[in-house]
Amino acid sequence: MPMPPSKRDIAKIERLLTDGYLFVFSQNSTVGTKAELINSYKNPIPNGLTVEAIDISDPKVRLYGNTAIEIAKLTFRYKTADGKTVSYDFTGSIVAIKEKEKWKIASFHASLIPPLSTESNSSK
Length: 124
Known about the structure:
The protein is mainly β. It has two helices and six strands; from the N terminus they run αββαββββ.
């Protein structure tokens, strides 16, 4: 999973992705390319957020020849325009392929995990 390292090594992230890389964020139906993802690490995205880090937990990986599929919980940390940090949890899936003996990420999909509601649905 490409993520901005602490030193924001954009070149490393670019090397981790296939040229035809695509991503999908289901909460707003965004479909994007490698160039758009790299740009989001370099500049604030339209809502003023800048990607700070992506934490991965509980990964499950399956290998199928030169293809790997990973499903995991992801926590995206962003910096807002006014300097605050905000986090969102997602379930993500990653498809990686082996090219010239190196693994590269070909596709990524994320679905927002809604926050738990404190309201009771038992109003009957």
